[in-house]
Design the sequence.
C-alpha cells in the first residue's frame, strides 16, 4: 500500500456523502482505484465486489457461536421460527453492509466523474459502471415518489431576479447587463420579492422592500451633497491634515460667508501678488447647473440674494493638467458593496470628459467661459466644438485608459497616479461611512426585516499639473446612460448609441451584479478540496492531465463572461488605512446611546448616559457643564440649515462635543491622538460593563487602568495639539490648507 493512496483514502473517508452511514463498520481497502475514464469503469465494480466479500468474511470470522439464543424480555429460549427469523435478520445485516459498501464505491466513482468535468453545470451525474444517474447527490433509498430505476428528474437552476421598474436612465445598460448574465428582469415590477432591486434615484424609490438587495444606501444622496461632503472631509482634515489634503479649501454658505471674506482680505494684505479664483457650487446642484466663478468676495455680494442659498465656495484649481491644450476631469465608478464590513471596489476603466475650448488661466475676460473652465458633459455637449467619436482615444469623451497611455508614453509613472487615486477614493469613503451607518440603522434597525444595500458612486477627479489628484465631487447617481442625443434634422433629436459609454458603464453594472449575486456560482470549500484530490489521482491513475484543468477548477470565467472590471481596494488595503477610521468609533458610540431604534438624534438623557457610562465626569467637568455643552452645540448645529429643524444632537454635533471632551482630558497630545485615547477609554468602559454583567453575584473584577493612548506611525501625526474651537467648527485658513497651487510650476 503506497503512502499516497493511504492519504487519499483518509481524505475520502472524511467526506460524508448524502445517505451515507455514520458508523465506520465498512472500510475501504488500499487497492481502491477511482474510475476517471470510461475505460476503467469495470475495475470499480471489481474492487467493490472484492471489498464486500472481504468485509463479509471478516464479519463471519469474528462472530461468536451462540448455542441457545434467549429472549431479552422473558429470558426463555427462542422458538425455531424466531431463531430462523433472527438468522435471516443477521444475514440481512451483512447484506446491508455489503450494499452500503457498494453504494459508497458508487458514490466515490460519482465524485471522480464530477471532478473529471468540473466545469459542467448539469445537476445530473452518471455513476460509471452502474448505469445510474443521480441528481448531484449519492443515491438514497427510494422515497414515496421515487422511480424504479433509481433516477431523478433534473432540477433547473433558479435565475436571479431583478426588479428594474425604478431604474430610470440606467435602464438600457441594466437590461444589457442582465441579458449578458442570463438573469430574469421584471421591468414592471413583481408581486413576489425579487433578489435585486435597481433604483434610479434613492433608497426610498420603493418603500415596500423587506428582503433582497437594493442598489442605494439610505442617506447617500444627503451625504454626498456639497455641504455635507465638505464637512465630512473637513472633520477628517482636522485629525489628519496631511492625509486629507486632496480636497480644495471650502467655505460653507451662508453661515461662513463673513469668515470667507475676512480670510481672503487678510491673505491679500499679507501677499499682494496672490490673485485667487473661487468657484461657487450650489449645495443641491448637478450637471454643472448653477456653478460660476468669482475673483473676489465683493463679486459674490453683487449677486444679491444668491449668497443666502446653501452653497459651497472652493478655491479654483488654476493649474490643471492639460491634454491637447484642453482641461479635462476623470469620472471613476466606485462600488461600495457593504458598510459593515466596509468593502470598496474601483472600476479599472473610467471616462475622461474634456472641455471644448482651449484652457487659459481665469481672468476677468474669460471668467464666464463655461466651455473653458467646466468639464461637465451636460454643459459641453451643447458646444459647437463637442466631438462625438466612436474611438476610445479621441473626441470630447474618452476612456481613462487612453489618458494613462498618453501619460505613460511621456515617461510618467502611471502606477503612482493610480495609487494616489485609489488612496483618495478610500479616504473619501472612510470620511462618509460613519454617518451613512447612522442613516442605515435609522431606516433598517437591527432586528427589523429589510434589504441589504450596495451602491455605485461617481467620483469626479481632477489631475493637477504636478499629477496630484484632487477630488471635485462625489455623485450618488452618476449617469449610466449609454446613448447620447444627436440632431438628425433641424430641431429634431434622437438617441444614438455611444461606444465609449457602453464600453465602460455596461461592464460596471454587469460586474456589480456579479459581485452581489445572491447565489454565486463558485465552488465551495469542499468542492475545492475534492478538486485537489482529483488532480493528484488523475496524475497517478491516468498519467495524463488536461492542460486547462486548473483554469476550469479556479472558476475564473462564468458563463463565458470577461474577468471582473472592478478591483477590490478595501478590505484588501485595510491595514494601510485602518488608523484613519477614528470617526467610525465615535459613530458606534453615538448609535449605542441613541436609545430609540430608528432615530438619528441623541437626546439630552442619552448624552448624559454616555458621559456617565464612560466615566467622563470629574472635578473639572460636572453634569451641569455637560448639560450646557449639549445645549450649546445642539442649538448651533440645528440652526445651521433650514432643513435641520429636528430636536436633538446629530452625529456631527456629537463629534464636535467628543473632540472638545478629548482635548480637555488629554491636553498634551495631538488632536487625533487625543480623540483616539478618549475612544479607547470609552471602549474600555464598555468592556468592563459587559464583563460585570456576565459575572455572578459576589464576584467582582479588579478595575484596570485605561490603556495608554496609541501613537500611530503615520505621516499625518501633528506635532502639537490642534487649535480646537468650542464655539464653532474648525475652519480652514488661507495659508494652511489642503492644496497649494503655488507648488505647481
Sequence:
Amino acid at each position: 500500500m503506497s503512502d499516497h493512496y493511504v492519504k487519499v483514502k483518509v481524505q475520502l473517508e472524511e467526506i460524508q456523502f448524502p445517505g451515507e452511514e455514520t458508523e465506520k463498520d465498512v472500510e475501504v481497502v488500499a487497492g481502491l482505484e477511482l474510475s476517471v475514464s470510461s475505460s476503467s469503469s469495470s475495475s470499480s465494480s471489481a474492487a467493490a465486489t472484492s471489498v464486500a466479500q472481504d468485509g463479509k468474511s471478516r464479519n463471519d470470522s469474528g462472530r461468536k457461536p451462540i448455542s441457545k439464543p434467549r429472549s431479552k424480555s422473558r429470558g426463555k429460549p427462542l422458538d425455531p421460527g424466531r431463531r430462523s427469523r433472527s438468522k435471516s435478520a443477521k444475514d440481512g445485516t451483512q447484506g446491508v453492509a455489503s450494499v452500503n459498501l457498494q453504494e459508497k464505491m458508487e458514490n466515490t466513482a460519482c465524485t471522480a466523474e464530477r471532478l473529471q468535468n468540473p466545469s459542467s453545470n448539469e445537476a445530473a451525474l452518471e455513476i460509471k459502471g452502474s448505469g445510474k444517474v443521480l441528481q448531484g447527490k449519492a443515491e438514497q433509498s427510494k422515497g414515496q415518489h421515487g422511480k424504479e430505476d433509481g433516477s431523478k428528474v433534473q432540477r433547473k437552476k433558479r435565475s436571479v431576479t431583478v426588479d428594474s421598474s425604478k431604474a430610470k436612465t440606467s435602464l438600457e445598460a441594466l437590461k444589457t447587463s442582465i441579458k449578458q448574465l442570463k438573469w430574469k428582469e421584471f421591468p414592471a415590477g413583481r408581486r413576489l420579492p425579487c433578489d435585486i432591486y435597481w433604483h434610479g434615484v434613492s433608497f426610498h424609490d420603493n418603500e415596500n422592500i423587506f428582503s433582497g438587495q437594493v442598489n442605494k444606501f439610505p442617506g447617500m444622496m444627503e451625504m454626498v451633497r456639497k455641504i455635507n461632503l465638505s464637512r465630512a472631509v473637513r472633520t477628517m482634515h482636522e485629525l489628519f491634515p496631511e492625509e486629507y489634503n486632496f480636497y480644495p479649501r471650502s467655505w460653507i454658505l451662508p453661515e461662513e460667508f463673513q469668515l470667507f471674506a475676512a480670510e481672503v482680505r487678510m491673505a491679500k494684505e499679507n501677499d499682494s501678488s496672490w490673485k485667487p479664483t473661487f468657484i461657487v457650487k450650489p449645495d443641491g446642484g448637478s450637471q454643472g447647473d448653477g456653478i460660476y466663478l468669482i475673483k473676489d468676495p465683493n463679486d459674490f455680494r453683487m449677486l444679491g440674494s444668491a449668497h443666502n442659498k446653501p452653497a459651497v465656495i472652493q478655491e479654483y484649481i488654476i493649474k490643471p493638467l492639460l491634454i491637447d491644450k484642453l482641461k479635462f476631469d476623470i469620472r471613476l465608478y466606485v462600488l461600495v458593496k457593504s458598510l459593515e464590513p466596509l468593502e470598496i471596489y474601483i472600476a479599472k476603466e473610467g471616462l475622461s470628459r474634456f472641455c471644448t475650448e482651449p484652457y487659459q488661466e481665469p481672468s476677468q475676460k474669460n471668467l464666464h467661459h463655461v466651455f473653458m473652465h467646466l468639464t461637465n458633459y451636460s454643459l459641453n455637449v451643447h458646444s459647437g466644438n463637442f466631438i462625438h467619436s466612436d474611438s476610445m482615444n479621441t473626441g470630447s469623451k474618452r476612456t481613462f485608459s487612453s489618458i494613462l497611455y498618453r501619460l505613460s508614453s511621456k515617461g510618467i509613472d502611471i502606477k503612482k497616479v493610480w495609487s494616489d487615486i485609489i488612496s483618495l477614493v478610500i479616504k473619501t469613503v472612510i470620511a462618509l461611512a460613519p454617518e451613512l451607518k447612522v442613516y442605515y440603522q435609522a431606516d433598517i434597525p437591527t432586528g427589523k426585516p429589510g434589504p441589504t444595500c450596495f451602491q455605485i458612486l461617481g467620483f469626479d477627479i481632477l489631475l493637477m499639473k504636478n499629477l496630484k489628484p484632487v477630488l471635485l465631487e462625489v455623485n450618488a447617481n452618476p449617469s449610466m446612460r449609454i446613448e447620447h442625443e444627436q440632431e438628425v434634422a433641424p430641431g429634431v433629436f434622437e438617441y444614438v448609441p455611444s461606444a465609449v459609454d457602453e464600453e465602460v458603464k455596461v461592464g460596471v453594472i454587469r460586474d456589480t451584479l456579479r459581485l452581489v449575486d445572491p447565489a454565486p456560482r463558485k465552488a465551495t470549500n469542499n468542492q475545492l478540496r475534492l478538486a485537489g484530490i482529483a488532480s493528484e489521482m488523475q496524475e497517478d491513475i491516468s498519467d495524463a492531465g488536461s492542460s486547462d484543468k486548473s483554469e476550469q477548477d479556479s472558476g475564473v470565467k462564468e458563463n463565458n463572461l470577461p474577468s471582473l472590471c472592478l478591483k477590490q481596494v478595501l478590505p484588501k488595503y485595510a491595514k494601510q488605512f485602518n488608523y484613519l477610521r477614528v470617526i467610525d468609533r465615535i459613530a458606534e458610540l453615538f448609535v449605542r446611546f441613541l436609545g430609540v431604534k430608528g432615530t438619528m438624534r441623541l437626546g439630552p438623557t442619552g448624552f448624559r448616559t454616555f458621559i456617565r457610562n464612560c466615566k467622563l465626569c470629574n472635578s473639572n467637568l460636572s453634569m451641569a457643564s455637560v448639560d450646557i455643552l449639549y445645549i450649546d452645540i445642539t442649538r448651533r448645529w440645528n440652526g445651521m440649515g433650514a432643513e435641520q429643524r429636528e430636536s436633538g444632537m446629530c452625529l456631527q454635533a456629537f463629534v464636535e462635543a467628543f473632540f472638545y471632551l478629548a482635548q480637555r482630558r488629554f491636553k498634551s497630545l495631538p488632536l487625533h491622538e487625543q480623540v483616539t485615547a478618549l475612544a479607547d477609554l470609552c471602549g474600555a468602559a464598555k468592556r468592563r460593563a459587559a464583563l460585570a454583567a456576565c459575572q455572578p453575584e459576589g464576584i467582582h473584577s479588579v478595575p484596570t487602568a485605561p490603556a495608554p493612548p496609541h501613537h500611530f506611525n503615520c505621516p499625518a501625526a501633528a506635532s502639537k495639539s490642534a487649535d480646537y474651537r468650542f464655539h464653532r467648527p474648525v475652519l480652514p485658513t488661507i495659508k494652511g490648507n489642503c492644496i497649494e497651487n503655488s507648488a505647481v510650476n
